[in-house]
Amino acid sequence: MDHFWIAVFTSLTLVAWVSSSQVVLESKPCDSSGQCTWNWILETKTGPGIVGWTRRSGAAIRYTVCDVDLHPSAPQPSSWLLSDQLIIANDTNRIDITVEYLIRSCSHLPPNNSGGAYCVNFFYLYVNQSDHYILDKALYPNPLLNTAAYENVARIGRLINVKTLETIKILNKGKYLLLAFHNDGACNSLYSVKVTYYVCPGGPLVNDNSLVSLARTVAPANDSQSIRVEGSCGKDTVHVAGSLYVHCQSNGEWNTSGLKGKCICKEDMQNVGGKCQACPDGKYNDQNGLNCTVLPSAPRNINFTFINQSSVEISWLPPAITVIRRNCSMTSIVASLVTIMKIISVLMTLAGVMSITYHIRKV
Question: Mind telling me which PANTHER family this protein's record contains (predicted)?
Fold first, then answer.
């Protein structure tokens, strides 16, 4: 029964998805250290009553814009919020841009619950991807003058009148990235922006203290392009028959459903937190993938009783400590007893007894 449960547990482990890692390229308003700064570039087409994106401080830094209920002579609003240029790793396949925002419905805004002629319930995300680093921010492409320098990648506005998180996924096309949020009539607030990409983490698989090690792998753009990676067995381990191939998925998780083999600790070592350590004194491990266990003791009270000149009965009590292992089982104990009986047989033959019958009995 013990072996049955071990087999079931292993099967469940092999179909697991092992945890992912995200590399953060940008996090506004606060970074991972808790430092909060957010000073991006503002570009706005001027006109009567048009204010454009405005940086707000206080309890939390954010950017807002609400150019509605404009004078009839005012042009359609066109306000841009530009990020700093971000450095993208060469092997990055997909970039995830997560924005937290709130859009106020035009039907709740003046005049006459319409927001005016230009009011809309969405805004846009544009990106500029290139292989050229621009040191001077004043030289960033101005989207008011050169909109073609930016690619429109998303219309944001999945929900209105509620603070919302939305993630836009884009393919990486260069070493550097600029974000540009364009507002042409929405009344909205931008609370945070986070730019990340996924990697499948390197090192030992984290499930069940696995000893299979994998190289850190940048996640593919989508699961149809999952990356096949071969694992390896590390220090003080041996490879048990079967392939060590797994797949890196687009969400940065290792798909281990194809993992057929495994790595186990060498003889007289055991897996402790994903590392092989020597067995404590008085314990052993015969390289079966289990933890160290105590040594089995010898059979107790072995007795030889001569029934007659041709028969001898051997009896014993079970060992005080019994352990099942490949090379030290009850079968091997019986084999040792048979060897003893053969020796007795030779001695009795020399004494003139032509044949002997053995009766083995475990008490």
Answer: EPH RECEPTOR A5, RECEPTOR PROTEIN-TYROSINE KINASE
d(CA 241, CA 346): 45
DSSP state of 14: H
What is the sign of the dihedral through the CA atoms of 218, 253, 99 and 146?
positive
In order of 313, 317, 352, 354, the CA distances from 362 in angstroms are: 10, 6, 29, 27
State the average pLDDT over residues 136-150. Answer: 97
Closest CA to 24 of 196, 179, 144: 196
Per residue in 276-294, pLDDT (tens digit) is: 999 999 888 888 878 898 8
- Spatial CB neighbours of 306, under 8 Å, sequence gap ≥ 6: 312
Q: Which residues contact 239 (CB under 8 A, 6 or more apart)?
A: 233, 261, 262, 263
Residues 16-25, buried b or exposed e (16+ Cβ, 10 A)?
A: bebebeeeeb
Backbone angles phi, psi at 9, to 5 degrees: -60, -40
What single-letter amino acid sits at 223? Answer: D
CA angle 101, 67, 167 (to 5 degrees): 20
**Which residues, including other chains, have CB under 8 Å from residue 129's CB and lie 6 or more apart?**
88, 151, 172, 173, 174, 176, 177, 178
Q: What is the pLDDT of residue 215?
A: 95
pLDDT bucket at 14, cuts 50 / 70 / 90: very low
Residue 139, phi then psi, degrees to nearest 5: -95, 5
pLDDT averaged over every residue in the chain: 84
What tokens does 253 get? 């998780």
Among residues 192, 19, 41, 164, the alpha carbon closest in space to that of 103 is found at 164
Residue 221 near residue 94, CB atoms below 8 Å: yes
